[in-house]
């Protein structure tokens, strides 16, 4: 396992870390899929470091006095702010996708709400596992997809069996590129 993937795991939930550790002990980790997740993580981390680096370079070079302790405190605030605003949601989305596809089971989900926050369109789905109802949100839809999607419309949801609240909309064509378990076959939907 590379250093970069270990670094990625620092930001992941205990459930995913335990699942991945078990998969690794059994020798079933798909190295190609792991490399794709590492590349995505590296891309987002690199972009984050670039943005923060440009901010620091400009701040220290042109505007601020680096010796001033308030500049350092402000710089720390900017690091945390950009991390929480920009990087954290993308890391969690990578984890969610990896966990759901690798420990996944399929179930039918139904659209129960649509919301339009300024220019961000959100579709909200509900799915049931072992008698309990879970909710899933999908943001970033095109305007036409958002308008054409009707209440009660069904989709296939893949959720992590060891953590049913971790789920994404299933895409059969991407299963082989998202499942970390090299021995896992395409699951069948259970209704």
Distance between the termini: 37 Å
Q: What is the average per-residue confidence, as pLDDT, rounded to a whole number?
A: 85
Please work out how many helical segments DSSP would assign. 6
Helix- and strand-based class? alpha+beta
The number of distinct structural domains comes to 2
Which outline best applies? globular
- Number of distinct beta strands: 5
Order of strands in the sheet with most strands: 3-2-1-4-5
Helix content: 40-55%
Secondary-structure element string: HHHHEEEHEEH
The main sheet comes to: 5 strands, antiparallel
CA gyration radius, whole angstroms: 20 Å
Q: Strand fraction band?
A: 15-25%
| Low-pLDDT regions | none
Structural notes for this entry:
This protein has 191 residues and is an alpha+beta fold. The protein has 2 domains: 3-99, no CATH class; 102-178, OB fold (Dihydrolipoamide Acetyltransferase, E2P) (Beta Barrel), CATH 2.40.50. 50% of the residues lie in helices and 24% in strands. It is globular. The mean pLDDT is 85.
């Amino acid at each position: 396992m590379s250093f970069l993937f270990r670094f990625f795991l620092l930001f992941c939930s205990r459930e995913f870390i335990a699942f991945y550790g078990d998969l690794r002990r059994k020798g079933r980790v798909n190295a190609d899929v792991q490399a794709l997740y590492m590349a995505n993580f590296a891309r987002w981390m690199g972009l984050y470091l670039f943005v923060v680096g440009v901010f620091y370079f400009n701040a220290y070079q042109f505007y601020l006095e680096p010796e001033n302790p308030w500049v350092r405190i402000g710089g720390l605030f900017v690091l945390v702010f950009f991390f929480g605003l920009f990087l954290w949601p993308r890391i969690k989305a990578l984890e969610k996708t990896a966990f759901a596809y690798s420990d996944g089971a399929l179930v039918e989900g139904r659209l129960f709400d649509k919301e339009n926050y300024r220019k961000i369109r959100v579709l909200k789905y509900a799915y049931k596992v072992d008698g309990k109802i879970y909710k899933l949100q999908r943001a970033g839809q095109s305007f036409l997809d958002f308008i054409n999607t009707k209440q009660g419309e069904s989709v296939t949801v893949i959720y992590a069996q060891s953590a049913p609240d971790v789920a994404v909309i299933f895409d059969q064509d991407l299963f082989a590129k998202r499942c970390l378990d090299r021995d896992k076959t395409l699951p069948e939907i259970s209704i």
